[in-house]
Design brief:
Length: about 140
């Protein structure tokens, strides 16, 4: 098991508090995602891993209709992971605090230079969408 998958299993999935237990991926799915799309992961670490996030880079068209996609389905995520647009949507985030999240967002902004950043809250009831100023 990779350090990234181990971090996610230990720190995120074992402590997931949402009502949707069906959206927690298996270890094999995490490992396959890392192998297939290493460029879509951001890892914040010093002497140990502090945070990990998986993000999508969506086209404007897909981003506008994001609410219509069931991101809990592996087949849907596989398709969305292949897009390379200028809108970042986080589908997985695990961090030890706000400072780590900010470091991760800064790294994604440096790598992708997105127009927007978004994420669902853990139970998928609220979609948070933010435009990046100066883009």
């Amino acid at each position: 098991m990779s350090d990234i998958a181990e971090f996610l299993i230990t720190h995120y999935y074992s402590k997931y508090k949402g009502e949707r237990k069906d959206i927690v991926p298996t270890l094999e799915q995490i490992e396959q995602g890392i192998a297939n799309h290493p460029d879509k992961f951001v890892i914040v670490a010093d002497e140990k891993i502090r945070g990990v996030a998986l993000f999508l880079t969506l086209s404007d068209e897909t981003y506008k209709t994001l609410e219509t996609f069931d991101i809990t389905q592996v087949d849907v995520l596989k398709i969305l992971l292949t897009e390379f647009g200028s809108n970042v949507h986080f589908v997985l985030l695990c961090a030890d605090g706000v400072k780590t999240i900010v470091r991760g967002i800064k790294e994604v902004k440096r790598r992708v230079n997105p127009k927007t950043i978004s994420w669902w809250n853990p139970d998928l009831s609220i979609l948070h969408k933010y435009e990046i100023k100066g883009v």
